Amino acid sequence: MTHVLLAAGDLAPDRDDYDESFVATRDVLTAADIAFAQLETSFATKGVRLPQARHAVLARPDGADALARAGFDVISMAGNHVLDWGNDAFFETRDNLARAGLHVVGAGANIAEARRPVRITLGDGTRVAILAYSSILPHSYWADERRPGCAPMRAHTVYEQIEHDQPGTPARIHTYPHREDLAAMEADVRAAKAEADLVFVSMHWGIHFVRAAIADYQRDVARAAIAAGADAILGGHAHILKGCEWIDGKPVFHSLCNFATDLRMDPVHAASKSFNEIRVLAEEWEPDFDSLYNFPKASRLSMVARFEIANGRIERTGFLPVYIDRDAVPRFVGRDDPRHAEVVDYMTAITDEAGLNARYVVGDAMVELEQAA
Asked: Which CATH number covers residue 284?
């Protein structure tokens, strides 16, 4: 018996009818044995927006029910929006997800809860554990012994001046994992692996909007997680696709892009300094005031990672190409759709640009990940 785990990217519905976001994907997600995604909003009736929150939307509580009807089983709250609306909204969001029958991972009332894995046993007895962490963290969004928040996997940034006699010239950027967070993550993975056949680790990380680029700390963290026993890494946050790689025979998806993420734009926002500071990071990003999906052009290309599991192991790994149009509704695109080839070609190009070792083979059930020779 073969089971299927699907992993989608970021979720941030912001519309009158949340179910509209999943009209084209519900059947596939519901048919999976486990469907996972990353939440980038709060489902709460009220909240107080924290001053460090950048883009924050307070979504209605029924958004949690929409995710359950969409076919999701496990939702990560480990991200840079987990506390946008304060503690009350955080707990209400978590409770609404649980009320809808969803497993929540990566966040809790304290650090012990935030580090706790979700455990699911498949029909053939395969035991699956899922952990989630965030490297993208406004101040105090991470949990500690007495404070709610998410499980952190912080990183340090060091800027090295290349030409010391040339003030103002570009610097090299070095990033390193936070030592204590890395050790905690490794301990969590080892503990989860001691009780599970397969451990999936979600990482909210990376460099948003910049084509292909992978930060040094991501590779360090991925290697450490896999050495500790992780069987796959599921990356999010970048809002565009990033390449994949294999580390010791285990797949790393550096970014799954968006899934159901609504983002409106108005002329005031489009002219703001904060928007234009990040707009220049992308290859092509033109505001569209009549669209629900105001992201760079590359963000139209997305994916859902797919894992075929049997007898306690991952038999095949790959992805289902997704296209997201101006209505912000994700749609799977089949082999006969030219947008399918567009996703595969983009993944091939950015994987090569980043020097990663995955290659992509179009199969009947999915685009399979293989390791380049």
From this structure: 3.60.21.10
Choose among 19, 5, 49, 81: nearest CA to 236.
81
Total count of domains within the chain? 1
What's the pLDDT at 218?
Answer: 98
Rounded to whole angstroms, how far apart are CA atoms 116 and 55?
Answer: 28
| Encoded tokens for 47 | 């909240």
Q: Are the C-beta atoms of 2 and 32 separated by less than 8 Å? A: no
For 145-183, write each residue's pLDDT tens digit.
999 999 999 999 999 999 989 998 999 999 999 999 999
Tokens representing 50 are: 């924290």
What DSSP string describes 311-346?
Answer: TTEEEEEEEEEEEE-TT--EEE--TTSHHHHHHHHH
On whether the pTM is more than 0.90, the answer is yes
Structural domain of residue 297, as residue ranges?
A: 3-371
Give 54's pLDDT tier (boundaries 50, 70, 90): confident
